[in-house]
Specification:
Largest sheet: 5 strands, parallel
CATH superfamily: P-loop containing nucleotide triphosphate hydrolases
CATH architecture: 3-Layer(aba) Sandwich
Number of helices: 7
CATH class: Alpha Beta
Strand content: 5-15%
Number of strands: 5
Strand order of the largest sheet: 2-3-1-4-5
Length: 184
Amino acid sequence: MKKVIVVGSHGTGKTVLSKRLIEECEKEFPGKKIKMLDGLANEAKKKGYKLNIFESQSQAIKAQLVVLRLYLNAMRLRDADIIIVPDNLCRQFAYSRYNMMPEEFTDLLHDLVKDELKDALILYLPIEFALPWDRHPSDTFHKQIDEMLIELLEELQVDFITVKGDVEARTKRAMEAIREFCKS
């Protein structure tokens, strides 16, 4: 299975790009099973968990564990040739650091992220536009999560490709990278 991990802060277009990449990959690689792992955050929200701002550390840990369990279950069930993952553990790690979770917990997430990124193509989507719908009270939060994601990728010394522009430009650049990645 080839994994394409799409990393970025909330609202940077990870899901929109991933849906476009599914369409393009289906055309580019006929006969291959191509799937997207998405919706984990929404699934956790349906279960009543807040994911960005927490009233207590206990609540934050429970929310993170729900997302982690959903993620691990979903990854086990995937029987795809190419899987595109916009809802990944990188962002959960950044949230856990932002919310100053216990070191043991962030260390565990750090190790899981390292495993997740191993042998994967990593596409990073920077913050390029305002989020008029963002319900978070602070623009600072968005930027801090973005900075933490970059720090994480650099700390793990993984190669990543920054994908910028409108949806068309991002799709074109990402597909170039996926073609190369699938040759290996």
